[in-house]
Amino acid sequence: MTDPYYQQPDRGQPYGYPGGYQQPGIQQPGFQQPGFQPGGYPPGVPGPAYPGGFPGPTPGAPYGVDPVTGLPYSDKSKIAAGLLQLFFGHLGVGRFYIGSTTIGLIQLCVFLVSIPLCLVVIGFFTWAALGLWAFIDAIMMFTGSVRDGHGRPLRP
């Protein structure tokens, strides 16, 4: 017995939508919606970081691409930079590693100035402040909020 209210779906149209209806924001192969850029995104809205949505190797980014910003990752690791800054941050080694030489030189100069100032009591305060700065800087490197000298995010 057949149901009189049951309608057989139209199998001749793409994806079973009658009349070739296109769902908003979904791109069908070989079909371009008017007013939409390739990928099904409206004009002015950036598409995914990877063309086609697949995170494969990119020729211009040998270490991958940041999925949030779309920028290529740096060749410097955030774990290595954070560990260097944590243990040798007084000397600015973590900053020299990622290519931020200006901040690294400032940290090194503050360290070198604070050594003779330790003969006077004020040097201990500058040394403690430098240690706090290096510790916070190491945490920022571990979390990935510090970029390398070229402005690229550190790779995981």
What does this structure look like?
The protein is mainly α and 156 residues long. The chain has a domain at 78-143. It is 36% helix and 0% strand. It is built from 4 helices and no strands. The chain has helices at 78-88, 93-98, 101-117, 122-143. α1 packs antiparallel against α4 and α3 runs antiparallel to α4. The mean pLDDT is 76.
What best-fitting shape do the alpha-carbon axes yield? elongated
Can you tell me the residue ranges where pLDDT is under 50 for at least 5 consecutive residues?
Answer: none
Q: Could you tell me the number of beta strands?
A: 0
Number of helices: 4
Beta-strand residue percentage: under 5%
Supply Rg: 27 Å
- Whole-Å distance between the termini? 62 Å
* Structural classification: mainly alpha
Mean pLDDT: 76
Order of helices and strands: HHHH
Biggest sheet record: none
Helix content: 25-40%
Architecture blueprint of SSEs:
Elements: H1 78-88, H2 93-98, H3 101-117, H4 122-143
Helix pairs in contact: 1-4, 3-4
Name some characteristics of this structure.
elongated, 156 residues, mainly alpha, 4 helices
